């Protein structure tokens, strides 16, 4: 009996998405130290700095900075002016405990020294967060440039206009609607209630599963099976050949019969298999769909 033999699942791959990523500003063709990037709220922007140099970040002309926070304020000097933010690394003075010392007259005195740590690549890595009056939140990774890597003298942000943002939102909405239509277009099994009778020595043409979607009937064969000829059978007219085509579905060859029927015969030479649809007419449809879009994939993955 072929009934609820396999589960069919649908894997939906999104058409478009914005991935969180480290944004490395693009260099000017005139000078690689002058860089540009597009504002994207989900991205973290890399800022390469260098001891003895100041880096400047340029926001939108009428934008003003409200809050600045960094994970290592002792190692970085950060200041803002209008729509500009200035960043440079600085040495970090770490205080030590008081020590008893003797002066040149032999008198004991208390001395509190400090250790100055110079900026270095490993210890000076940190993040920087900036909020502005435009309800934007900027996220940065601050690092010290090494070797031949260029210092960011200037990073200038570019922004999409309200019109572009609206067009972008409209495009995404349209893609979502098209995606939903494709989901609905995939033929969905509506009836697994099939039984079969396999004549002697006819196992090689017996399908591994059968179902219909209300319009077409689908018989799945593993690669070790032989694809048979298909005939409609009724008591009054006997046998008549049916239109079919074959498609690949995972590891199976699926014989697609262009109708639903109560009785179907499969023949190959002397081999014969009878298929009886016990759910015939219970879930009819007037039209069936399929899709060859890469964003929608059906995979038959296992037996019950």
SSE blueprint and pairings:
Blueprint: E1 6-12, E2 22-23, E3 26-27, E4 34-38, E5 44-49, E6 55-58, E7 65-70, E8 76-81, E9 84-89, E10 92-102, E11 108-117, E12 126-132, E13 137-144, E14 154-158, H1 162-185, E15 194-198, E16 209-212, E17 217-221, E18 229-234, E19 238-241, E20 244-249, E21 252-257, E22 263-268, E23 271-277, E24 296-303
Parallel strand pairs: 2-5, 4-14, 5-13, 6-14
Antiparallel strand pairs: 1-24, 3-4, 6-9, 7-12, 8-9, 10-11, 12-13, 15-23, 16-17, 17-21, 18-19, 18-22, 20-21, 22-23
Low-confidence stretches: 1-19, 290-304
Largest sheet: 6 strands, mixed
Q: Tally of extended strands?
A: 24
Sheet/helix structural class: mainly beta
Q: Give the oligomer, counting copies of the same chain as homo and different chains as hetero.
A: single chain
**Number of helical segments with 4 or more residues:** 1
What is the overall pLDDT average? 82
Strand order of the largest sheet: 3-4-14-6-9-8
User: How many angstroms separate the termini?
Assistant: 13 Å
What overall form do the CA principal axes indicate? elongated
**Percent helix range:** under 10%
Percentage of residues in strands? over 45%
Radius of gyration: 36 Å
- The SSE string, one letter per element, is EEEEEEEEEEEEEEHEEEEEEEEEE
